[in-house]
Amino acid sequence: MSAVEASTAEKGPNPVASWVRLFASECRLVLTRRRNIAGLGVLSAVPILIAVAVKIWGVGGGGPSFVDSITANGLFVALAALAVELPLFLPLAVSWISGDAIAGEANLGTLRYLLAVPVGRTRLLTVKYASLVFFSLCATLLVAVVGGLIGSILFGTGSMFLLSGNTISFGATVLRLLLVCCYLAAGFAALGAIGLFVSTLTEQPIGATVATVLINVGMFVLDTINQLDWLHPYLLTHWWMSFGDLLRSPIYTGDLSRGLLTALAYAIVFWLAAWARFRAKDVTS
Amino acid sequence: MPRGSVYGFLGPNGSGKTTTIRMLLGLIQPTSGIPTVLGEPIPQRVAYALPKVGSLVEGPAFHPYLSGRRNLVRLDAADPRASRRTAGKRIDAALERVGLMPAADKNYRAYSLGMRQRLAIAGALLQPRELLILDEPTNGLDPQGTREVRHLVSDLADDGATVLISSHLLSEVEQICSHVGVMHAGKLLAQGTLAELRAQTAPTVRLETSDPQTAITIMKRLGLKDPRSERTGDHHQISAGLGTVEVSAIVPALVAGDVPVLGFRAAAQSLEDVFVGLTGEGFDVSG
């Protein structure tokens, strides 16, 4: 190496640019991995399935929320798909990626090389979590976009009837849909923080994923037990179905802001727990 | 470890070599004491010390579904001091240096063990380093690869880098290291230059002859210590400690006593003798 290279290497780029570089590398790693692409494929198959089923057999009574409205406005496919994937598919995807975040690297042994670079433990944890937030948003948007597209193709779009009975324009509908995605992604990102914490406890990514899924399902189960209604407002998943409030006019913000606050609290607590655990962890894999 | 030295870090399996290396890299916390690397306490000042350290710890580990080059890009992106602008050039130079260029764009999972080992060494060479910590660098390499690693290590040392090589291949350490440390059961038993270590143990003489009885009698009379005979093929090999006896006096005395001298050698003990002398003959790993 020449002396010139050595001096530029020593000065280095600014911390923000290098953080962004690692974040981009992390996102590329997650989004180009074949099994993750397959997982995203499954997520986007659900809206297609719903749209095709309604097109062929029509809306029966009952079924998942929003399905009844699909024939009036194709964009409802996106909402129906999100509602269907909310309890398991989307949380499973987030659990999968977050459980893999640290445990996966530990399992491969790449964690020791990252730390020896040195990547910085706190820095690595911020990048890992930022990529989980990004993935949560991507996965949610993917379902919505695929649903919106297939719905528009099969059923056309028009002005949208809101739950409160008003109608809004196509543009306003897309905006509302975007807000729904952001709201849900915030909830999934909080679940991602739980997954990240669990991931620092083990070297088995599958174990971390399963544990995170169990926590998610456990919260849904607790939410159905009426005797525990005092506990419900503190459950992360309790607020997820409130995304329907974004489809009222005016938007009913009470539950939504409670939901966002709960997600934020979970994210902070579990990220800090992950940090406390990972900061002094002996890496022996 | 003196700067600029090539330090061979020896010890039987389970003696604590890799544990020591993990401590130096801040991967695990010592139960007591504070290790220092390039004068910086670890793990408190890991961020200052480790950028100057390239390392290979307990075998290569990379993402199997990424190519060798993309794995290096990933490692480089993790380095807060690495510039993206020079990344391509530095990565190519590192790949070139370990001879991995032709396979740079193959998936890591398709690499042989030797190629994986080379990629890990390339990862340690992405930046100019003051210290290289190489844990079993020639593990799984073919003879050409082993030679290349040897050349690489001496090149790096010539450039002024200090190199720590942990290994249990004594002949390899003997060939490339200037200094040696021997670990056993978690303790550093001895360290110093190769010559110093060898000097700690007495030199020996080896004699090949077809008349062991007479030879042993004469050797005892000369004052050689503890001559022992061992049958090798058609004749016997006798080894004995030299003690204070003048080497040049031995063969004439043997010839005068009509002992057929088929071969004679006086030498410092091999590193293997030193090693076994320090760590014992036992085959069991230290618990």
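The first strand of chain A starts at residue 160 and ends at 161.
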